Amino acid sequence: MRVPDCICRDVSLARYSTLCIGGRADYFTETIDPALTADAQLVEACEFARDNNLDIFTLGQGSNVLFGDAGFRGLVLHIAANGWISWRDGQLWVDAGSYVSTLVNLGVSSGLTGFESFAGLPGTVGGAVYGNAGCYGAEFWDMVEEVIFFDGVYVQNKTKDPDMFRYRWSLLKDNPQWIILAARLAVRPESKDVVAQKTRKTRQVRSSNQPKTRSAGCIFKNPVLGGERVSAGALIDRVGLKGAQVGRAMISEEHGNFFVNLGGATAADFIKLIALAKGRVLGEYGVLLEEEIVEVGEF
Ligand code: EPU
Fold first, then answer.
1. Each residue of 24-64: pLDDT tens digit?
2. HSE, side-chain direction, 13 A CA sphere, residue 219
3. Mean pLDDT of each 10-residue bin along the chain, 299 residues long
4. What 3-state class would DSSP assign to 174?
């Protein structure tokens, strides 16, 4: 098998996840996301994967993934930020590799409202679109108008319609071979002071009950119980699991839906802790928690 120059072999994934956990990827490439088109490197990497029957995993900031200890036998496509943000005809276009935090800062510095609820949220625009990230009453798809993606052969676009997203889900999740390149977002002008104040408020609330140590954000989606969506963290808290530990993985004392790496935790520690929380919540509340994090590779 001829491996193109743009692809590295045997790359440790731990440094690409906010949990700092993971074995090695057989193949790894980092593309500076070309935003509205698929550049030669992206095309070549996808062709290589197709010709060799390799799975592709598209990676952003790694803030919502748990890589297995035994690594990943396919190709990891790391979409790095190119910082491309552009106004076109009164619309904001951003590349998939841009950090959500860059948009939050842009909102404050330029007086644009829409991003305030995402202050303090790690991750890239591609990840937020893919998983319909949400916090403090807002969902990322509230702002999305159009998504540009590469399907491995062609660059395509989809304009928003109501069937494309719901709580913590987007159409992209059903089509993991689509590589998000860019999004068009609807934002409105607002007084800089108002945006700054809302952004500050979000940061304060977030830091009051979410841990700052190594985590992957919320592990589980909030389940529906008695007809309404309830906090998985509150359920895990109520069954008395805050502080529970397996190896070097621990359920945060601050928020029951955050599991933290105390340093040296393995994916296996996390999987056991996830099973513990699921089992206990199922036993006491009759509801099966579903992972929000994406588990990738071999465990
Ligand atoms: N609560 C507890 N104990 C806990 C955690 C929460 O009693 O351990 C209570 C809180 O006191 C509050 C309620 O549960 O009364 C809701 O808590 P919170 O505001 O933290 O919201 P959440 O439903 O637990 C969701 C999102 C978070 C997002 C927050 C803030 C999901 C899975 N989680 O959490 O998103 O930051 O709302 O809006 O929907 C993420 O997806 O990674 C994430 C962190």
1. 999 999 987 556 667 888 999 999 999 999 999 999 999 99
2. 32
3. 94 97 97 71 93 96 97 95 77 92 96 96 96 96 96 94 97 94 93 98 96 96 97 98 98 98 98 98 98 97
4. helix
Question: Any idea of the CA torsion for 172, 174, 179, 181, to the nearest 10 degrees?
Answer: -10
The ligand 1 atom nearest the CA atom of 232: 24
Q: Please indicate, yes or no, whether the overall pTM of this predicted structure exceeds 0.85.
A: yes
CA 210 to ligand 1 centroid distance, Å: 9
Which residue out of 168, 257, 281, 289 has the highest number of ligand 1 atoms within 8 Å of its CB and is therefore the one to mutate?
257
Element (H, E) at 43: helix 40-51
| Whether 88 is catalytic | no
Q: Which residues of 108-147 are buried (b: 16+ CB within 10 A; e: fewer)?
A: beebbebbbbbbbbbbbbbbbbbbbbbbeebbbbebbeeb
Query: pLDDT tens for residues 94-127?
Result: 999 999 999 999 999 999 999 999 999 999 999 9
Q: What type of residue is 26?
A: D
Ligand 1 nearest-atom number relative to CA 135: 38
- Mutate-to-test residue for ligand 1 from 168, 205, 214, 231, highest number of ligand atoms within 8 A of CB: 231
Distance 11 CA to ligand 1 centre (A): 34
